[in-house]
Amino acid sequence: MKFFQTQLIRQIDRMTIEKEPISSFNLMKRASLAFFNRLLPHLPKEGKITVVAGAGNNGGDALVIARLLMNIGIVPKVFLISPKGILSEDCQNAHDKLAEKAIICKISHPHELDDEDIFSCDILIDGLFGSGLNRPLEGIFALTVERINHCQGKVFSIDLPSGLFGEDNSLNDHNHIVNAFRTFTFQTPKPSFFMAENERHLGEWEILDIQLHPEALSKTESPFYFTEDSDISFYKRSKFGHKGTFGHALIIAGSFGMMGAAVLATKAALRTGCGLTTAHIPQCGYTIMQIAIPEAIVSLDVQQNCFSNIPDTSKYNAIGIGPGLGCGESSKKGLKLLLEQKPENLVLDADALNILSGNNELWELLPAKTILTPHPKEFERLIGMKKSPYECWLTQMEISQKKNIIIILKGAYTSISLPDGTIHINSTGNSGMATAGSGDTLTGILTALLAQGYPPEEAAITGVWLHGKAGDVALSKQAEESLLASDIIDNIGNVYKTHNNIV
Q: In this predicted model, what pLDDT tens digit does every residue of 258-317 receive, in sequence order?
C-alpha cells in the first residue's frame, strides 16, 4: 500500500472531487460515515458521549458524526472550539445541518473550559484538528487537549489525534497532543503513525477506506509504502528441484562466547528454504555447530576464537556476515578482504555494521545492492549523529540512493529503504521479538532468500515480513515475555504453509 505525506492527501482529495465527481461536503459525509460505522461496536448501551469539534474540516467530520449519532437515537454533547467564530465552508455546512437537531455549545474563551461537565463522558470523539496542522497547539486549543487527556472516557480520534503532525513531530509539544484510545484514519496511514514517540497519542489505529479515486491514488507519487500480507509472494518450488537448485548460503558469524548468534543465523537460513548452508566460524565453535545443526556445513577459520579470513566465496549464492562476529582487528581485516571481492548478494549485520561505522574506506567497498540491517543505535553509529525518527527515514533514503544499497532499519515498524528512493514499512512483528538473537535470525532469513534467487530488494521486503510473521505465529502460542528467537525460526515453516501467495 502506498501512503502519503499530508499535503499529498489533500491533493488526492481535490482530484477525487474533480474526477468522481463529488462535492467536498459529500466526501466529508462519506468519511464521517466510515468513522461512524467503525465506532458503532464501541458505543456503550448506556453512557455519555461528547463530541469536540474544531473550526476546520476535521471539525466538520465531527459534527457530521454527531448528526449520525442522533439519527440512531443517541444525543451527544457537542462542543465547538472556535475562538474566532470563523468555520471552514464544509464545517459551517455541517454545523448548520446539525443545529437543526441539536444544541451546539460554542466555546471561544479558555475559562469556558473550566466546567468539569464538558469532559465528563464515556466516549469522547476528537475532531479538534486534522492533518492540516503545522504548528504546536497553544492557547485555548492546548488547554482543550489537556482537558481531553484528563477525561476518564475512551477517546476516539478522527483521522489523527488532534495536535499530531502527519510527518515530523520532533519540534512538536507532546503535552498538547491528544492521547487517543483509538484512531480511525482515512484511506492510508500517516508517516507519523510509525514513529515510537507517537504511540501514546495514537492508541490502536485502523485504516478506513473512504473510496478516494483510484486514479488519484495511483498517479500521485510517493516514496512511502506499507507492506501488507497481500503484497508478499513466495517462489514456487519445482518438484524436480534438489539441494543445488535452492541455493547455497554462507553465514560468517560467531566468536568465543557468541556462538549462539552463528547457530541462530545458520538455522534460520536452512528453515527459510536454502538448499545448502555453510557456517564459517572460529574453531572454538566447531562442536557447538555440528551438534546444534547437523544439517549445516562447517567451514573453520584459522583463528581459534574469532573471524579473520574468508573461504573461497565463488561457490556461494549469498553471504550473510556479522552476528556475534566481534570487532577485533582480525575481524576488521577479514571483513575488508570479503568486501574487496565484491560478492553479490551480501547481508551485513551486527558487528559487521559496527566495523563499518566511521570507516569510509569500507563504505566505498560495499557492492551494489548490499543489504545493511542496523537497529537504531547501530544506524546512529553508521551515520555519525542522532536524528529524529522521521529524519532517519529521509537519511535512510538518501544513503540508499547515493550508495546504491538497501538499508533495513529495525524496529516495531521496520523501514526498508531501496536504491530507487522508496521506503517500505513492514506491518508484521510484535514486541516479543525484541529479544536476543532476533536480528541474527533475520540475517539468516535474508541470506537464504538471496541464495534462492530473490532480487535484493524483494529479498529485503519479503524477509522482513517473513521474520515478523513468524514472530506473530509464535506469539499465538506464547506470551510476548517468553518469546525466543528460536521460536521465530521454528515458525517460519508455518508461515510458508499458510501464506497463499505463490508465484
A: 999 999 999 999 999 999 999 999 999 999 999 999 999 999 999 999 999 999 999 999
CA distances from 237 to 241, 247, 438, 492, 503 (A): 7, 12, 27, 16, 9
Question: Where do we find the cell 466510515?
Answer: 34
335 and 372 Cβ atoms separated by less than 8 Å? no
8 Å CB contact between 207 and 188? yes
The neighbour count for residue 44, using CB atoms within 10 Å, is 12
- The superfamily CATH assigns to domain 240-498 is Ribokinase (3.40.1190.20)
Alpha-carbon Rg for the chain, nearest whole angstrom, is 26
Domain 2-222: which CATH number of 2.170.16.10, 3.40.50.10260, 3.30.43.10, 2.60.120.1690: 3.40.50.10260
- Determine the Cα–Cα distance for residues 88 and 167; give it in Å rounded to an integer: 23
Domain ranges of the chain: 2-222, 240-498
Residue for grid cell 469556558 = 112
Dump pLDDT digits (tens) for 333-377: 999 999 999 999 999 999 999 999 989 999 999 999 999 999 999
Instruction: Please state, in angstroms and rounded to a whole number, the distance separating the CA atoms of residues 36 and 300.
Output: 63
Dist CA 121 CA 118 (whole Å): 8
**Strands, DSSP E only, in 35-76?**
49-53
Sign of CA dihedral 374, 380, 381, 382: positive
pTM here is 0.96
**Residue partners of 83: CB distance under 8 A and separation at least 6:** 108, 109, 139, 140
- Sign of the alpha-carbon torsion through 471, 472, 475, 481: positive
